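FORM 7B: Structural annotation worksheet

SECTION A. Query
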Amino acid sequence: MFRFFVSLVLLFAATTLSAQDHGKVMESVKFQSAALNQSTEITIYLPPDYQSSERNYPVVYLLHGYSDDETAWLQNGEVARIADEGIKNGTIPPMIIVMPDGKINWYINNYNNTQKYEDYLISELVPYIDKNYRTRPSYKFRALAGLSMGGYGSLYHLLKHPDMFIACAALSAAVITDQQASYWFQNPGLNFIETYGEYKNNNLPKTWKENNILTMAENVNKESLNNHFIWLDCGDDDFLIEGNFYLAMLLRNRGINFEFRMRDGAHTWTYWREGIGPGLEYLGKAFKRL
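SECTION B. Predicted structure
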């Protein structure tokens, strides 16, 4: 009987410790957006000690790629497991990770303001998270990350809203040259015309010219990014590597703080699963000003 009791105690202790190692995930939470004029969904990861502590946490807004949704990083990217392991090992600080559904809107307000995703993210979602969760409501403890279209979105919002975010980690970011954009505008499946406007007589529309990451990086006030952090990670076999190279050189020439990683790999979930851990580590260092 004593052995049975001890076994139960040990089993309970092991179960409790195991539970403490795992964060809480709230998948596809409904959010009514006035900017989008529709209900949308977000998935939220809370760190393992969120329920047992009274502390406030930094927040990472983790953006999915084209044609995915708010569950992609959770299901395909295994970000909850990766965050749990990093927090347990001390390589990633405890953080809240917010994964919104960006659909195929490129995370910006489109050319005729019928898809106001930027307004949703900046004016609605960030205030909602700060109000309803124990966050550190300062740009110093708020960052972005994402892959492909989400990598574009993370760079876009850091460059345009440095007063809102301290850092971004862009994996396989959709950074493309104007020459490449001409092809993308002629591919109806990419939602470029709906987002940036009509492509006429080989002339790129104004909205594209203003929101192209390379143009934004070239024109951004360098001083506004003095205390900010940018992480680029793109595979050597990725079709987006050229634009990422251009961006890295542009940031380097302007003296803007960044780090660039090129690993063996392509535009795949295998690559992004391997990259998101180091990306979150980088953002954690940004929160600590390292």
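SECTION C. Observations
The longest strand covers residues 24-33. The chain is about 40% helix and 15% strand.

SECTION D. Sign-off
Analyst initials: ____
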